[in-house]
Backbone:
């Protein structure tokens, strides 16, 4: 263990016992994640208090235990440790063990609690308890079947631990190196798509877009913005503003032209009276088209 000093605070630099390949394999069980070592029993002690001091309120965590027979095993929980003294439901929880150089995964059974969150050491299903009684020991409690496993397969029946580590698991957003398709997201390109749009049905000459919403939602302002874009200047054809009641008092259809002298575009915006708690547009005010 190394120590780095930042100001007046001493910060521990912990070294993981996992190889780089083992770390990658465990990350493969979790998805696109980043592991940060929070707790190392050989450094901080096997006491439950030391574990909670380092691992409480850290979000999802991965526990990795090592025994003298060379087994590497442990478990994952997606729920915070908080010492709340309650049973924890966690559908994402699982146990794992390396076998033939690759980890296998044992998920929590449906309808069972993943662990009990108290001031004791970490446990999974109250079935597999790590750092049991503040000692470098793993304890298998019989009669509980939240996880189905055989102790000889999971850890070779060797309950003496040589190390126990807990990692914070941070899920990170995967960014593609290259976009999956090239799209020209320019104003001219998008406006061109609108100008050249043709309804699927030949009997429909243009698309009518009905705008419905509460008073002050900005329906009329939305039309004015669209109209201004295609006219190439600021317009306020529809009455808009802020008031206690709707400024739009009747259903109106607004065609949009492509420029001052341009032809009508293949759509029209239909403005309606704003919805209020007690009043709104009469059902007959909106025509069926």
Residues:
């Amino acid at each position: 263990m190394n120590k780095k000093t930042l100001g007046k605070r001493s910060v521990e630099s912990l070294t993981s016992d996992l190889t780089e390949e083992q770390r990658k394999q465990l990350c493969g069980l979790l998805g696109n994640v980043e592991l940060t070592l929070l707790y190392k029993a050989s450094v901080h002690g096997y006491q439950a208090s030391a574990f909670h001091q380092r691992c409480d309120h850290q979000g999802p965590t991965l526990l990795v235990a090592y025994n003298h027979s060379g087994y590497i095993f442990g478990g994952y929980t997606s729920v915070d440790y908080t010492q709340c003294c309650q049973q924890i439901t966690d559908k994402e929880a699982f146990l794992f063990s390396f076998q033939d150089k690759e980890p296998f995964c044992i998920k929590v059974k449906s309808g069972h609690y993943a662990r009990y969150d108290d001031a004791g050491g970490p446990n999974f299903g109250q079935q597999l308890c790590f750092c049991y009684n503040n000692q470098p020991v793993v304890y298998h409690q019989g009669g509980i079947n939240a996880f189905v496993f055989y102790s000889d397969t999971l850890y070779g029946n060797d309950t003496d631990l040589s190390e126990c580590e807990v990692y914070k698991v941070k899920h990170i957003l995967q960014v593609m190196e290259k976009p999956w398709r090239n799209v020209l997201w320019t104003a001219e390109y998008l406006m061109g798509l609108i100008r050249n749009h043709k309804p699927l049905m030949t009997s429909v000459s243009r698309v009518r877009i009905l705008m419905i919403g509460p008073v002050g939602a900005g329906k009329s302002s939305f039309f004015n913005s669209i109209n201004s874009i295609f006219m190439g200047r600021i317009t306020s054809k529809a009455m808009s503003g802020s008031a206690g009641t709707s400024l739009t008092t009747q259903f109106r259809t607004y065609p949009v032209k492509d420029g001052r002298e341009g032809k009508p575009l293949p759509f029209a915006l239909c403005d309606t009276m704003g919805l209020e708690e007690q009043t709104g547009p009469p059902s007959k005010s909106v025509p069926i088209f």
Q: What stands out?
A: Residues 136 and 274 are 69 Å apart (CA to CA). The longest helix spans residues 219-231. The mean pLDDT is 87. The first strand starts at residue 2 and ends at 6.
